[in-house]
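tool_call: predict_structure(chain=1)
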Amino acid sequence: MPYILGRAADDDDNDPVEVREYELICNGSPYPLGWAQSPVYTRVETGSGNIYWRYFENGMIVSSPNTCAHVLFGAIYHFYDGLNQFDGPLGFPTSDVTALPGGASYATFEHGVLYLASDGTVSQLEPLLPSYVQSLTANLVPPSFSMLDLGGLPMPGPFHQGLDPTIGGITGFAQVKLQAIADNAVAGDPRVSQHVSGIATVVSFDSLGGGGCAGASFNSAGRSLLPAHTFRVHFDFNLSGCAGLLGEATADLRITVRLFLNGAVSVKLQSYVIDGVSTPGGFGDDDLRSGLNEALNKQYGNDLLNAAVPPGVNILGALVAQRGNASVTAGTAQIGDVQLYIEPICSVSRLVDRINGKSATESLTTLRGVRDGIIRSNPRGSEFVGALNLFGALLIDRFARETDRRSLFTGAARILHRNTSHDGATLHRELENLITVITEASERTRTLPGFLDRLLMRTVAHLRDAIEKKHDLVTTLRHVRLLLEEDR
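tool_result:
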């Protein structure tokens, strides 16, 4: 498509795109963009500020007030170009084109992720369903304790089943966390605990803030920040003794937190504002305000989520939905929902790569074609593929911890390669038969303690048998379906 045009920026004004170009050259970074083909263009983005972009022979550098200056090139750039670039549905890039082991690469954007497979095909990824994110978090801790850093306190509410990344679930998470902070603050101060007999906390989602760019300089590209969540919080303090006869104390706050992705997903306090406090007669207003300040100030720098990513799961991007009713794998996203993206067929690629040369490429092409056909033809196709991607990553990690891991990896790669003994339609039919049992199993991983670990153990045992009997992929999948149906 033609270049998006704007006003030429002033020369040497140190706009973000110029600075990023200097940083690439001065630090000797790989420079696949080629020569500049345009000036640095700029225009005012309504409601936020200036955006800047420049075209090169094989890509572009582009920045906005809510994102750092990022570098796009090659096949990902051309795919983005076909979607009307930053004026299209993906918005501005929030990362450079980033290489992955095995020859794949990806880039994240304000509203999605583009993935370049090792065979050269580019696709726009779908986020994990909220239920799969819950499955991930549910299996990281014993079911009777929280994902929150509450000092070992039992978890109130449903969050032992994992963190729901929808705005309702995130608001519930904030409610539990803030209730625990308030309870612990009172319990830890005898001067307060002798007067306070209980605290009721009400949290509601208020608004979504902008993103931003942190750490950018002449020597660093910086990182784009995800939009921040602001919540309104109301505390009712039940007072004991004589103070309680005069009424109850209350406090109203606004608390802003931001999501970060650095190998794992974390949540950190960004700011808070105490809108008002009220105690009987106003005599304790200053003490209550001081107590709230002290309790919240202790949270700066802490990871409020305190969640680990299971080994083998490679999270490419975490996005915050900035507009309602955007299409997601199933249903619609609401403003403030968190969406996680993992590498597609990552586990299959790692296995098939053990087959040298043309055979590996042919096997991956066949499997990707069947995957895409399933997504197009079945209403639950995307959900099913998401479950396979997630389970496959965990299974690969389980392989790596077995004493016979070498034969497991090699044997599983051969099973995948033996799909060529059947046509794609036969493989497609067997996967269609698996959809219901796989999606049901993914739900059980969230609700039944230990189910996922038991399923992984049984799958490894089954694969050993399939490898010994030299089963092909269709036969192996049929046996896996029977294995899952036994647990219904």
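agent: Residues 140-160 have pLDDT under 50 and may be disordered. Proceeding to next step.
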